[in-house]
Design a protein that fits this description.
By secondary structure, the chain is an alpha+beta fold. The protein contains 13 helices and 22 strands.
Length: about 575
Amino acid sequence: MLTSLLLAALLAAPQSSRVEAPPGMVLVKGGRTTIGTTEEEVRKLIEDNGQDSLWVREYPQHKVEVRDFFLMVSEVTNEQYLEFVRATGARPPEHWAQETIDTGNMAYLEDQNRLRVAAREQGKTFEMRAFDRTAWWNKNWEGAQWAYPEKLANHPVVYVDHPSAFAYARWAGLRLMSEQEYQRACRGDSTRNYPWGDDWKDGEFAHTFEAGKDRSFPVGSWPKGSVGGLFDLCGSVWEWTSSPFEPYPKYKPLEIVEGKGKNKEKRQAIARWEPDFRVSVGGSYKNPKNECRVTTRRSTLRFQTADALGFRCAATPQPGVDMASTVLREDLPASMRPEGVNYDAGLAIAMDRWTAEERKGPEGYRVITAYDYLLFIPAESVEAASQRELDEESVEKGPVHLGVFSSTQELVAPALKAGTYMVAYRGPGEPKKARAADASASTTPASGAEDEGAEQPAVPVAAANDPLAALRFDRTKPNLVFFDKHGEPVLAVPTLQPKYERPSAGRVTIDQVHYTPKEMEKDATLKPGDRVNLHFSIAKSSSRGFEFSLPLLLRPNTTQGWRY
């Protein structure tokens, strides 16, 4: 496929010479990685422990190629999650609101008792229902009282469901790790059962059931079990991944034979797959060591929360790729995109930055307090094969969609609020029908001209189906048109005609724009600031495409400390 060839070529060249790790993360080198457990090991686990479906889901063992990625040094902690809750108004975890939930429980029991008494008086039966703390909090949390647990500041945050973990990751400019990435972080090029190897000493390497401590501990409390600067990969709390709970390639039920001779029996060891569930990994302080191995796969309902279920985040080294994928998934799902237009998150051009604080914790631990980004996601391809064709198509059929622009920054120019926009190209000129109508209007007086007895100017014509009819812009020049997420045109800004040449890797350039007071007094449209140019290609073929530049003006002195 054309896009795949281009992606391979463009990613071969580094986008930046200074790609830095996000705060609180370390680089995990990718490579050929052994995933899962051998059939022989699975049979032994079933023989020793029973629980067929728990173990059979780990096989067949296979290899996958995992790319380099960044991973948090520990699970996300309460203090890290607090920054997200404060910044976004997201639902706090239920263990931050135990007293409020207890009050709700008392009110619920009183209500149930009244209903029971009323039913008895009417000679009816009444079945008491247990109070569901999670369901109550999920329904009543908005406006309710909660208290951040200071004593658990650097303990893993728990009672966070998968959508909430995903939301934190987006806010922090990160993503959830995949099951394959987790196993890569633990195993590297080996087939070891635990991050540190195959040896086990109770209470020394990991916080599992064997440690005899039925509660959470600060992250990094078992440093002997760390590997590559990563802590608590085993035990502590279960960790969400982005991977659906599906079978590995070539999976089939295992036939288990028990007994001998006439007493021999056969049965099928079958895993119950749930693709809408997600895999959680690593085990917890409530699980024994054989359930906290690298290959353990827990089937977890996406909306489930628990007191031993948390998460940690990952990140792709290429700036913008993770956020581009998130923007396309959350802001512009396929149903909202122009028909026939596909975007390529792998070719995103971006700049981003974090603010973070160093707090008490293991080496490398940081608390992210804010994340900013600015990115462009190019369309996969265009139909036009020349500048003339591109201009004609954009004028006659409507603007040609080039990609998606998204940012947390409000721009000085073009005057856009923070958010996500689709960007299209509109060449110079008017549609043929409009030109013909203009010619007719030049010889036909406007309505009422005869009565007035005076010559009237031609009536400007806008086609009824013109998607840009609501915008005022110079149609004699090429323009970039910004559409909101609902496809409504927001703004058109003049641009240079694109060059039709060999596609090149996207890049970001930054420079400062200065004007003298006299220049600004003479021309009120001149505004100083930091100019960011996003240079990108839209391919027609593997050797030809259109080169565009999207210039953006930010407030002065606001581009320090960004990755790009």
